[in-house]
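Amino acid chain:
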Amino acid sequence: MPPVTNAQIAPTARVHRDAKIGPGVVVGDFCVVEEDVVLGAGCFLEPYVYIKRWTTLGKRNHISAGTVLGTDPLDKSFKGDRSYLKIGNGNKIREHYTISRGTAAESETVVGDDNYIMTSGHIAHNCKIGNQVVIASGALVAGYVVVEDQAFISGNVVVHQYSKIGRLAMIGGGTRVNLDVPPYFLYSDFNVRPTGLNSVGLRRAGFDSAEIAALKAAYKVLYRSGLKLEDALTSIEHGVSTEHTRHLVSFIRSSTRGIARE
């Protein structure tokens, strides 16, 4: 058992002596914490949580029963090399969830801060999940996916590898995301397509009426004007240039998969 300060470790838990356990950590019954694991201050592990080697959790993460963190990648090319899972602060990860480490040696999967990740899903190797993201039950996030801050991924969404989901995008339930999804918009259907502005999410995030109006105008230029993509982006830059429309344009220009279209 590792030396700890002000931590509660259930007698039925198995915590490797080389794990680093921060103050105020609670480790529930029948948990397993392997070597080379770091649990930051105030983390709470419900019963039957398994934290595998080379996983780091920041402060105040609440991990629910049956979750396994730091699993080997679900990737046939994985050779068993050391790789990492790094989770930030203040996350809630609910029951029966799995998150994998990176595939290549010394690579990493990263989850940021204050995310709410619901039940019975998976985040695969080498993903980058931002802050304040919601991932609902049954969603599957494949390898090398990037999810920007405050995105909302609804239940049973399937995100194809290498796809990118922009800030404050909201993906409707059961959608297949096989293209990059620009920020600030709503998406649905079996094959992902935009359906309008994520107005509710923007207001909840503190966007004012002028910022929302600019993004609405940008949406119309991008999807309703009939302009070619680069012409539409240039029009947005010149006509409705704000901090958020500039991020929208930058996101689209950096896309290598292509973006979801109406």
Residues 209-224 form the longest helix (16 residues). The helical segments are 199-204, 209-224, 229-239, 243-253. Residues 206-253 form one domain.
